[in-house]
Amino acid sequence: MCGRFSLSEEVLNLQRAFEFYYADEERPRYNIAPGQQILTVIEQEGARIGKSMKWGLVPSWAKDLKTGYKMINARSEGIETKPSFKVPFKKQRCLILADGFYEWKRINEGKQPYRFVMKSGLPFAFAGLWDVWDKGEEPLVTCTILTTAPNKVTEKVHDRMPVILNEKDYDFWLNSSVSETVQLSKLLVPYDEGAMEMYPVSTLVNSSKQDHPEMIKQLNSL
Q1: 8-42: per-residue pLDDT in tens?
Q2: pLDDT tens, position by position, 87-99
Q3: How far apart, in whole angstroms, are the C-alpha atoms of residue 146 and residue 108?
Q4: pLDDT at 67
Q5: For residue 69, with 0-12 CB atoms within 10 Å meaning exposed, 13-18 middle and 19 or more buried, which class applies?
Q6: Which residues contact residue 112 at a Cβ distance below 8 angstroms, ignoring those fewer than 6 apart?
Q7: How far, CA to CA in Å, does 115 sit from each of 25, 31, 56, 123?
Q8: Which of 53, 51, 57 is nearest to 82 (CA)?
Q9: Is the pLDDT of residue 222 over 70?
Q10: What is the SS3 string spanning the chain?
Q11: Bigger pLDDT: 184 or 68?
């Protein structure tokens, strides 16, 4: 699964890299947790638009918001048949921007967090799905991160990893007129391990209340 990630890059740099329009301000984030608002990119009328969404998908048909706590991630295998995800998979896909994500490895002393990043240091995009829940006082837009089998880097710590899209596939993934699930499913594979690296970080990241640059610094003791 993917339960924490970071997006410390300045929003203007993100707009240039991912070619989207976004009017709101965003501060650097070092320890993004489920239930928080996150920056996503969707397609509207042929243009990429930045949109803030709550992390934890609440299907449009859900009776209440509690569903979102269980749906921060969605397994990509068989996604096209799962009640909560099959409609968003066909019509409501998004990019979820990140520059690193965290997983925990069990060791003798407890659990050691590791951060996974691109060797290039550049931000990247998770494959996401979104939906709108309108049974409250105002519509709520929520999203989930798709997961897949691990690559040779992430398998050292966890048996799943988030789906990271290749830049060449962004337009196809975002295009709401594309609903061919077979072709879309071909994108939901482990990312190239040769482009990724991992390193241990402080257990400060264990607390979702902590969100500062210390989160992403490498520990030298491991």
Answers
A1: 999 999 999 999 999 888 899 999 999 999 999 99
A2: 999 999 999 999 9
A3: 31
A4: 79
A5: exposed
A6: 104, 105, 200, 203, 222
A7: 26, 11, 21, 13
A8: 57
A9: no
A10: CCCEEEECCCHHHHHHHHCCECCCCCCCEEEECCCCEEEEEEEECCEEEEEEEEECCCCCCCCCHHHHHHCCEEECCCHHHCCCCHHHHHHCEEEEEECEEEEEEEECCEEEEEEEEECCCCCEEEEEEEEEECCCCCCEEEEEEEEECCCCCHHHCCCCEECECCHHHHHHHHCCCCCCHHHHHCCCCCCCHHHEEEEECCHHHHCCCCCCHHHHCCCCCC
A11: 184
The residues assigned a catalytic role are 2, 103
Q: What is the pLDDT of residue 123?
A: 98
Region at 185 (left for phi over 0; alpha for psi -120 to 50; beta for the rest): alpha
Query: Side chain identity at 133, as an amino acid letter?
Result: W
